[in-house]
Amino acid sequence: MPAAYTDAELLRRSSWPQGTILGVLKKLAPYVLREVLPLYVVGALVFLLLTTTDLISGVVGILLSYHPTPRQAWLLYVTQVPRLLNQSLILAIPFAVLVGFGRLAKDSELKATAAGGVRPLNLAWPLLLPAALIGAFVFYNGAYLTPQAQAQWNTAWFSVYRQAPPPPVTTTYTYAQDGTLFSASRVETPQGATVANLTGVLVQTPTETITASTGSWDARAKTWTLPGGWVVRGDARPAEFHTPRTFPQRDEIARPTPPPAESTLPELRAELASGRLNVQERRTYQFNIARRYADAFTALGFAFAASALGLMVRNRAWAVTNVVFLILGFYIVWSTVPQLAGSGALPPNLAAWLPPGLLTLLGAALAWRLR
């Protein structure tokens, strides 16, 4: 039956009464889901196994070389699973949809539904609800579980080598108090310590400007101490000093925000709103926030594009070929946009939403042909 016919025309040309057609549509939704969902489970497990193969070999290598405890080895593996799980859950969608529709095409079931007056796209809509549920889990996992697991992995990694994780660092710190400006390019706070290490220090009072390459910040004594450096008073030439100088400083040492990969969504938003980030860092944080939403929407984009594409395949061979090209094309764009956002070539929000946006456009173009 020509694809250009409307539902009314198809109903008029079909020998089935309208009530029967509606009943067929109701039965087709669970039928399509029964065809696709088992393939989705298999695909998700296969992709997870493939993505964790390198991780497993790395953990085995560490076991042989550094003899970590079983708990350390287990943490190195399990704390990476949430990140890889998101990728597997998303990539399994086009695999399941295209292979499932390829089977329906091979057995001429797509032709049979069209001949019975069912529009092709009516087979695609039932898949959007499961995709939305998958996207909701991907969002929660990426926004909360994966960052926490990444932080645990970082601690486990250093424990294997019997080292302490590097201390948290705050960059471009500035604070004003009683006419005195305190600034440091780097504040390094060892875990549990009350004294922070300062780098690139500047203290500007109403009468003098003092600079030093290093210093210390005592949180209990509320002081900054510079062991040596340079001082400038008025228009005089800079003079070097070697006797430690101490300045009262009432600010509190704040816990630095962890790197974006180890930050939950609320932490990313709070750091972005703090005003402490430079231009490059702002791009990174904006991109990471937008990507966590965009990755969740990718599940819907894949379901839409793969369904429309699957309704056009004629056999399983073409379905598998389309799976490869669809995933490969998506991955190329998805892995490139972080660099485009970081360099300023694309706005961070546009870069994050570009991969699912292209999938949606592809699905819309294919759906137009199937209308």
Automatic annotation (TrEMBL):
Its GO biological process terms? lipopolysaccharide transport
> What's in the GO CC field?
ATP-binding cassette (ABC) transporter complex
For the keyword Membrane, the answer is yes
Q: Transmembrane region positions?
A: 37-64, 84-103, 123-143, 319-337, 349-368
Note whether Metal-binding occurs among the keywords: no
Chief subcellular location: membrane
Q: Report the superkingdom from the record.
A: Bacteria
Keywords of the record, alphabetical order, are: Cell membrane, Membrane, Transmembrane, Transmembrane helix
**Where can this protein be found?**
Cell membrane
List the membrane topology term(s). Answer: Multi-pass membrane protein
Q: Which residues form the signal peptide?
A: none
Name of the protein in its database record: Permease YjgP/YjgQ family protein
